[in-house]
Amino acid sequence: MAGWQNGSQFTPRKSIRMKGFGSKDLLKTIPGLVERELPVHMEGVFMAKKKLQGIINTTPLQYNSNLSLQYGSKIYLKREDLQVVRSYKIRGAYNKMASLPAEILAGGVVCASAGNHSQGFAFACRALQTHGKIFMPTTTPNQKIQQARNIGGDYVEIIIGGDTFDDAFSTASQYCQDHKMTFIHPFDDPKIIEGQATVGLEIIEQTDAAIDYLFAPVGGGGLLSGVAHVFANLSPSTKIIGVEPEGAPAMKISLEKKERVTLPEIDRFVDGAAVKRVGELNFEIFSSYNLEVETVPEGRVCSMILKLYNEDAIVAEPAGVLSLAALEDFREEIKGKTVVCILSGGNNDIIRMDEIKERSMLYEGLKHYFLINFPQRAGALREFLEKVLGPEDDIVHFAYSKKNSRERVSALVGIELKNKKDLEVLFKRLGDFNIPYEYLNHKSDMLQYLL
Known about the structure:
By secondary structure, the protein is of the alpha/beta class. The protein has helices at residues 42-52, 65-71, 89-98, 102-106, 116-128, 142-152, 165-179, 190-196, 198-205, 222-234, 250-257, 280-288, 298-312, 322-325, 353-364, 380-387, 422-432, 444-447, and strands at 61-63, 74-79, 109-112, 132-136, 156-160, 182-183, 213-217, 239-245, 292-296, 338-343, 367-375, 394-399, 408-416, 437-439.
């Protein structure tokens, strides 16, 4: 296999090409083609590839030596964070809009997005010179909002409202009906899916050896719906794993229940993949191919963001590293195998880094919060520091208000450890010196005020 230093790429084999895209007979030239009665087709994927020529970047498939060494595998990253708008979403948005008749485009288009789809949509509006409205939830990072404005220019208007993508989606859908405009869905549309599927075509073209495992993020399901269809036809031996955030497992639960479900509540932190309900077409494709979907904790996602930045100088967003965060759960299974992870986006707002670091340290067991019941007398805090804390333990948060009418008062204390094993020692010392306390790390309702 070509290349072993970090950042090297597969040696591309001959590109998969089709001439005369109007003929389905030409699809018979693809060995092992297993086209099913599905809403997307390989012909449409190849047509999407043609539409996107000169519009998008052919993103690199890079060998990552750090992850390969860590997991004893050959791990390659499909760098969609290096795409024109720093995510794969441009593929589907442009393919869908470029497929619309001119009179439909002239009437205007609308989308709902938690960020990346809006940028692909904005790019397509400007490139096709059509006007669009973008509805985004209030939780969308400012970086993504501003980027959509910069990319679309005078061709787009951004409307912010609602707490989740699903709220923005509902508002956008109603707006379309009221103003007779065309809705550009972020994932539940054949042309969107076929556009995203071109990621899979590029991966196949960029490999010179069999791919044993492919990991890809799952939000609404548009990306993996398309990529899975391509791999079913061109690399059927590859095991495909979809990855969702633990706090928004809409596809996993839907597959388990064998019907689409709407989650009552979700953790919105992984904003690019946090949806309450997956797409109808996407669910149909996932079910047809019996795709495996796993979830990963948001804290591990944060640790992977920091790892990529510190070790490889890669700036990735939370949804972008979902596929990489799942590798830990497959450590034994992927040993000695060739693995591709789709790094789906790099639109991360720098102001989120404090929260990302906090969530990572909580997940890694390096930061802990307590309510400490101190006696209200001089020297109580000094005794705690000297008798309970270890030499490398550090207080990073302390909130206390003196109440003259009480003998004891609680203080909120955040402690950072050098090694997660030191927590056992900390608990022992708290017990040895009879210090009343309440451990808060497992109380998510209280931690939300600290994150």
